[in-house]
Amino acid sequence: MSQNGWHRVDPADVPDDGRVRSVVVDGRTVALSRCGARLGALENRCPHQGGPLGEGSIEKGLLRCPWHGYDYDPLTGKPPEGFSDGVAAYRVDERADGVYVQLPPLRTEVRTVADVMVETLVAHGVTRVFGMVGHSNLGFADALRRAEQRGELTYIGIRHEGAAAFAASAYGKLTGRPAACFAIAGPGSTNLLTGLYDAKLDQSPVVAISGQVPSKVLGAALSKMSTCLRCSRTWRCRPPRSTVAATTRSSRRWR
Ligand code: FES
Questions:
Q1: 166: Cβ below 6 Å to ligand 1?
Q2: How many angstroms separate the CA atoms of 228 and 220, rounded?
Q3: Shortest-distance atom of ligand 1 to CA 49
């Protein structure tokens, strides 16, 4: 129940002093923290690369993102002096019957490029996706979630990208129909290669989909910024003919 956007937080989710946690409120996740007598609630998405702030920690009174260590004021969402990016902060009210957070109205969902990619996969008969979600493929992962909610496909999470590629290859061999494997940029995508080569050897229909870093940091000689095309050339094993590699950011780089 909510009134004017105020939502009651489950008492079991309210953090102890000096702690932050991810809390689901009205179906949305916020980073709820307690510093001294005060509670703060921030949008759970770090403005740097989307890290989950609720999984971070309170360090010297600041909320530290678990991914790359950016700090924010846990009450206001402002960064330390000298930095410009901040996080949306929500109002918090401690009442006699519990803690309340005021959230803005839900945004209307818009159809994204990732939605179109997923719709295209489904239209071509891909109804099983094996993969791993990470910060470079979150948009596509969200589109997969929406398609799964519509009953159009099944997403199977795996613990290593190699398993995703082998699972997709096995699915194709057993059913004759294509499945997709799905990974993040850089090392996640290169981990797909062994399973993709298995698909090539047995002519199994597999679609490989990868996230990608922003174009401006490509080619910086870091593993996170490698492209699968370059790796496949280095290894002298081009992706199988039946495999389509795509990226959520720039499909041209994969041609
Ligand atoms: S995603 Fe939060 S610091 Fe990079």
A1: no
A2: 14
A3: 1
According to CATH, the topology of domain 113-246 is Rossmann fold (3.40.50)
Successive 10-residue mean pLDDT values, the chain, 255 residues: 84 94 93 92 93 95 95 96 94 94 89 96 97 90 95 96 97 97 89 96 96 76 55 40 38 30
- Tell me phi and psi for residue 169, to 5 degrees: -65, -45
d(CA 13, CA 228): 41
Ligand 1 mutation target, pool 45, 57, 67, 71, most atoms within 8 A of CB: 67
Give me the amino acid identity at 24: V
Indicate the CATH number of 6-102 among 3.40.50.740, 2.102.10.10, 1.10.10.60, 3.40.50.10860.
Answer: 2.102.10.10
Which segments of the chain belong to CATH 2.102.10.10? 6-102
CA of 100 to the centre of ligand 1 (A): 27
